[in-house]
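Researcher: Re-running this chain for the archive, since the previous output was lost when a drive failed. Same request as before.
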Amino acid sequence: MPVVALALTDGAGRWLMHRRPEEKHHGGLWEFPGGKVEIGENPPQALIREIGEELGIALSPADLAPVGFAQESFESSARPIVILLYRCARWEGEPQALEGGAVGWFTPEEVASLDKPPLDVSLAGALFQKMPD
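Model: Regenerated structure tokens:
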């Protein structure tokens, strides 16, 4: 199952993370915001839609840069999740947790210490290994 996620940076070394609402799967854990790619959408279209719904901000496809991906093991599910992570440093609006939970800005070290779902642990590792010094 294809899923998209956003690594949104404020340009000052901080990254936006979303804390999932308690009542949802992985409730209370921090993640890169995003969601499922729907039929008829390409990944950037899905990410723009999902981020508008979740955070209330507008993104441009030209500002999205693919960073990497993480996937569940094929033994763990009949339809394993594959998350495609995109980096972005430009947006319009003020990010808010419109579907519940919370949002916060964190340094890479702080992101590493947050409780995250397993695939977000992998995504954070891939993102921060690729970042220039």
